[in-house]
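Lab notebook: predicted structure, single chain.

Context: the supervisor wants predicted structures on file for every construct in the current expression panel, including those that have not yet been purified. This is the next one on the list. No modifications to the sequence; it matches the entry in the shared construct table.
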Amino acid sequence: ALTTKSSSDVFDLERYELLGDAFLKFATSLYLIKYHKEWHEGFLTAVKGQIVSNRNLVYCAIKYGLPGMLKVHKFDPKNDWQPPLATVPKNIKQTMQAVNHSARVLYRLTMTDEEIKTGVVDPKTSDEFIAQLEMHGNTPDPSPMANYLSQQTMGDKTPADAMV
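Prediction complete. Output recorded below exactly as produced.
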């Protein structure tokens, strides 16, 4: 179940999350009781809580690439839709992700009329923009343009819920 309630789709992961959470806690409890009979019940409960914690589940979700597959936001063609071939050049996108920049800095990319017409950014323009990125501090704040970097913003609980 990869669709959250906030995406306003026909179905969502809430019921599956409830069942998965119950099953995960039950299976973890059985495992701990079977293999650690000498442990006190209070300690078993604490260990179970750590194993099935949202933090641990988020790490597992990231390991499997789950956050990138989740549908978190309601589809809004006016803001979310990205026309074919309207994309940020790969080298700029990779640099922005590597230095954790917000998509807001894309407004600083100044292109010539020729680059705008052809849709191809000159390597010199690209290199100058990348140099600007590396010179200025990072700005990891959320941006409505994050879609152009293939990013979406979500809380830690969302991928943890989808993991179960």
